[in-house]
Design a protein that fits this description.
2 copies of one chain form a homodimer. Chain A has 390 residues and is of the alpha/beta class. Chain A has 2 domains: 206 residues, 3-Deoxy-D-manno-octulosonic-acid transferase, N-terminal domain (Rossmann fold), CATH 3.40.50.11720; 155 residues, Rossmann fold (3-Layer(aba) Sandwich). In chain A, the strands form 3 sheets. A 7-stranded parallel beta sheet of chain A has the order 3-2-1-4-5-6-7. The first copy, chain A, has a 7-stranded parallel beta sheet with strand order 10-11-9-8-12-13-15. Chain A has a two-stranded antiparallel sheet with strand order 14-16. In chain A, β8, α11 and β9 form a beta-alpha-beta unit. Chain A is elongated. The two termini of chain A are 21 Å apart. The mean pLDDT of chain A is 93. Chains A and B meet through α8 and α10 of A and α8 and α10 of B.
C-alpha cells in the first residue's frame, strides 16, 4: 500500500515534468537526431508494446546495444526484446533477431509493460518505474554490467532513500568491478555479484588470414584527418633505424582513401606505395588499405599498431582489437570515448604525434599489449537461461 | 550481555593464538628490529598504561606517526598520548610532546586501557578490543585517514559480520576518499565523512631563500647509488640542446658525497663543478649539494626536479615537496613506497633512466607539477577539540 502510494506520487511528478517540458519536446522532435526517438518515447508514435517474449534487454545507446551481442548470440533459442533510448541504439539493436522499441518515458510505462518474464537492464539505466512495474508484473529484474562511477556515488548516496527503493526492485545485480560492488551495497542493494565488464566478451576474430611478411610490420589503424602526416613522418624516421619495416595505413573513412594516397606520395616520395585493393599484399614500403573489414585481419599479422582517432580529439578506437592479436599498441592521448576499454589493455604507449617515432623504437623492447581482465559470461548466460522467477 | 559474550570469546581466541605463538615471539624478541616492540607489546616490558591524557592517537609505524604532525601541532594545548606498533613508529612519535607507548597485544588491553577520553585510530589500524574497550570505558573512538583498499574490500566484505561489530564501536570515520566511504558504508559503518588524506596537510616550506639563477635550473633530489650516472649522462645530452642549463645533485646519504663528487668529475670532465658547502651558490655547471636540509630551499628556485630513489628499486621519495614549489617533476617508475602520495601530484613524467634526457626536453613544454587534492584539516581539529563525548 505504501509502495503504491510512492509509485503514484512518483508518476505524478514525472507527468508534471512531462507537461512542463512538452513545448521543448515538440520542438526537439523536429531535429534530425531526435526525429524518431522523441516521438516514440514521449508520444507513443510507432512504438507499440512488445509481443510476448522471454528476455527483454533494456540498453541506452550504441555502446550498450553492441555490448550485448555475445549474449544475444548465446541466447539464440529465446524470444528476445530490446528497448533503447537513442536513435543509434535503435539502429544497432535492429541488427539482432529481436523486437526493438524505444523505451517510453516513465509514466507511459503503466500502459506499456505487458507480462514480461525477465528484464535485463544495462549499465546505469536506472528508471524507477521500469524496475518497479516490470517486477510488479512478474518479471525478475537483473542489472547487468552495472556500474556507479566514483564521481556519481556521492550524488547517489545523498539520494539513498530513493536508490534503496529502486535497487530493492532488482533481483540480481551483476556488476563490473569490486569498486562498483561496494558502491551498490553501500546504497542498500542485495544480491550483488562481480562478473566483470561484458564488453570484454565481444568477439574479435580475423575473417581471412594473410601471410606474415619479413621485417617489422606496422599498421596505422582507423586514422583520421590530420593524423596521417605525423604517422608518415614518424615512419620515415623509424626506417633509418629499421630499414626492413613496412607500414600499412588504414584510414577510418573510405571517402578519404584518395586523399591519403596523395599524402603518402607527397610525404614519402622515395618509398614504394601500393594500394591494398590492387595488390592484396603487404610487400610495398607503404600500403594504403583502401578496403573495409580488413582491420582485424591486418592486426593479426602486424607487430605494431598505431591506433588512430586519438592524436586529434576524436575519442579513440577499440583497443581490444589490436591487443587481442598481440600488437604492440601506440595510441594518442585523446581516448575519451574508449577510456573504459583502455583500462583493460596493458603496455600501451600513449604519446603525442611528435613522439610516435621514438615510441616505435621503444616498442621493440616492450612486450605486446594484451587484454587483462575478464568477464564470466557463462555465469550470466546460465543465470538468464535457467533460473526461475523468484 | 551478548556483546560481553562476544568480547570474551574474542579474547579467549586471541589468548589461545598468543599461547601458540609464544615460542616464536620469544625467539623474535632477540632480533634487533623487534628488540623493543615485541617485549613491550607481548610481555609488558617497559610499557605501562598512559597517565591521564585528553587525546590518544594510535598509529602503526613511521608513515602514520609522521602524518599526525600537523594535528599534534594544532592540538598543542591538549595532553597527548600516542601508541604505536613498530620501532620506527616509536622513534618518530617520540619527537612529539606526548606520552608514547607500544600498543599491547589485544587480550592485554583489558588491563591496560585506563579512562581514555578520545581515541583516534589512523588508517587501517582496526583492532576489535582496542575499539571496544576504549568505547566501553568512556572514549569516543574516531577513525582518521581511514581507508580500505580495492583489493582488501572483498576480504573485509566476506567478514562483514565481524567488521560490522568493529565499526559499530566507531563514533566517527573520517576517510580519505569517496571510494573508501562507499566501502565503509557497505561494511555497515555509520557516520562516515570524506575529509581527504591528512598526509596532504604536511608542512612543506623553505627555510632559507636563495636567488634564482639565469637559465634552466635542474635539481636531482635524493639520488641513490647507481642513479647519478644516468642523470649526469642525460644532463650532458640536454646541455647540447639548452647550453644555459645548470644541474644540482643532492644525494640522499651524506656518506656518498665524496663518491658522487668523483663521479661528476669523471663523467662530465668538461664542466665546472662546485660544492655547495664551499660556494653556497648555483653558479657552476654542476653543483654537488653536500649539505643536509637544503632540498626544499633548492626546489624553491628550480625549474625541473629529477626525483631520485625511483630509478632503482628504492621506492621513491616524497613528490609533494617538489610539486609544492612548482617544479616539473621527472621520476623513475619504482615509486612503490610513495604511490599513495604520487596519486595527488599531476603532470609527473615517469621514465626509465635512459629516457631522462628526452624527458628534460619534454619538460620545457609541460606545465609544472602540482598537488591536486586537499584535506579539510580544520574540520578534524575542530571535531577533536570541541565535540563532547557522546
Amino acid at each position: 500500500m505504501r509502495k503504491l502510494f510512492f509509485d503514484l506520487a512518483y508518476t505524478l511528478l514525472a507527468a508534471f515534468l512531462y507537461a512542463v517540458t512538452l513545448p521543448v519536446l515538440i520542438l526537439f522532435s523536429f531535429k534530425k537526431k531526435y526525429r524518431h526517438s522523441l516521438p516514440a518515447r514521449f508520444f507513443g508514435v510507432k512504438n507499440p508494446p512488445f509481443a510476448p517474449h522471454d528476455i527483454w534487454f533494456h540498453v541506452c545507446s550504441l555502446g550498450e546495444a553492441k555490448a550485448i551481442a555475445p549474449l544475444v548470440e548465446r541466447l539464440g533459442e529465446k524470444r528476445l526484446a530490446i528497448s533503447v533510448i537513442t536513435h543509434t541504439g535503435h539502429e544497432a539493436a535492429s541488427k539482432y533477431a529481436a523486437q526493438v522499441r524505444y523505451l517510453p518515458f516513465e509514466p507511459w510505462l503503466w500502459f506499456w509493460i505487458e507480462r514480461p518474464k525477465t528484464l535485463v537492464v544495462l549499465e546505469a539505466e536506472f528508471w524507477y518505474l521500469l524496475f518497479r512495474l516490470a517486477n510488479k508484473r512478474g518479471a525478475r529484474v537483473i542489472a547487468l554490467n552495472a556500474r556507479i562511477s566514483e564521481r556519481s556515488f556521492p550524488k547517489y548516496y545523498k539520494m539513498r532513500w530513493f536508490y534503496r527503493r529502486l535497487l530493492a526492485e532488482c533481483d540480481r545485480i551483476f556488476c563490473q568491478s569490486t569498486e562498483d560492488m561496494a558502491r551498490f551495497i553501500a546504497l542498500g542493494a542485495r544480491n550483488v555479484e562481480v562478473v566483470g565488464n561484458i564488453k570484454l566478451a565481444q568477439k574479435i576474430e580475423s575473417t581471412r588470414s594473410y601471410p606474415k611478411p619479413d621485417g617489422t610490420l606496422i599498421v596505422a589503424g582507423s586514422t583520421h584527418e590530420g593524423e596521417e602526416e605525423a604517422i608518415l613522418e614518424a615512419f620515415a624516421a623509424y626506417r633509418e633505424h629499421n630499414p626492413e619495416a613496412k607500414l600499412l595505413v588504414v584510414p577510418r573513412h573510405p571517402e578519404r582513401f584518395g586523399k591519403v594516397a596523395e599524402l603518402i606520395v607527397q610525404r614519402l616520395p622515395q618509398m614504394v606505395l601500393s594500394r591494398w585493393s590492387e595488390s592484396r599484399s603487404v610487400g610495398a614500403d607503404v600500403t594504403l588499405v583502401d578496403a573495409m573489414g580488413e582491420l582485424n585481419n591486418l592486426y593479426a599479422i602486424s607487430d605494431v599498431a598505431i591506433l588512430g582517432g586519438a592524436f586529434k580529439p576524436i575519442g579513440g578506437h577499440n583497443p581490444l582489437e589490436p591487443a587481442t592479436f598481440g600488437c604492440k599498441i601506440i595510441s594518442g592521448k585523446e581516448i575519451f570515448h574508449q577510456r573504459e576499454l583502455f583500462k583493460y589493455v596493458s603496455h600501451v604507449q600513449f604519446v603525442e604525434s611528435e613522439e610516435i617515432a621514438s615510441a616505435l623504437v621503444r616498442a621493440e623492447k616492450l612486450p605486446p599489449s594484451q587484454v587483462e581482465g575478464s568477464v564470466d559470461l557463462g555465469r550470466i548466460v546460465e543465470f538468464l537461461k535457467t533460473e526461475k522467477i523468484t
